[in-house]
Amino acid sequence: MAYWLIKSEPFKYSWDQFVKEKQTYWDGVRNYAARNFLRDMKKNDLAFFYHSNEGLEIVGIAKVVKEAYQDPTTDEVAWVAVDVKPVRKLKKPVSLETIKKDKRLANMALVKLTRLSVQPVTEAEWHVVLEMAGEH
Q1: Low-confidence residues of the chain, pLDDT below 70?
Q2: Is 81:121 a contact under the CB 8 Å cutoff?
Q3: Please, what is the Cα angle at 128 between 9 and 16, to 5 degrees?
Q4: Reduced to 3 states, what is the DSSP secondary structure of residue 123?
Q5: What pLDDT score was predicted for residue 61?
Q6: What are the two backbone dihedrals, phi and then psi, of residue 113, each rounded to the nearest 5 degrees?
Q7: How far apart are CA 104 and CA 84, in angstroms?
Q8: 3-state secondary structure of 122
């Protein structure tokens, strides 16, 4: 299993909306690196759900339920989407500020590749973030 982080601006698509809908397709990615990460996602991989621009925090965990397919929001074959569903809200959100202060997360993509909307998370980083969220 691999771990990921997906970003959404809460005013466009929030964790609460995600939970209410029970499943969604992750579309609209127009960055080649992020698109490649979507292509790499496998069924049952887990992803942190991150509120970007406002909030700036990891708020929940999602699961990949359908692997990459043509993004339904465009006819351009270069772009893909995956289906994800919510697993659970974190006991406490983990802010970007908190992540940046922890030396164990200094190389996390969220810190290094700040503009990327879909990014990998190492297993070690995954467990550190869960610890910070009071999940361990």
Answers
A1: none
A2: no
A3: 30
A4: helix
A5: 98
A6: -115, 65
A7: 28
A8: coil
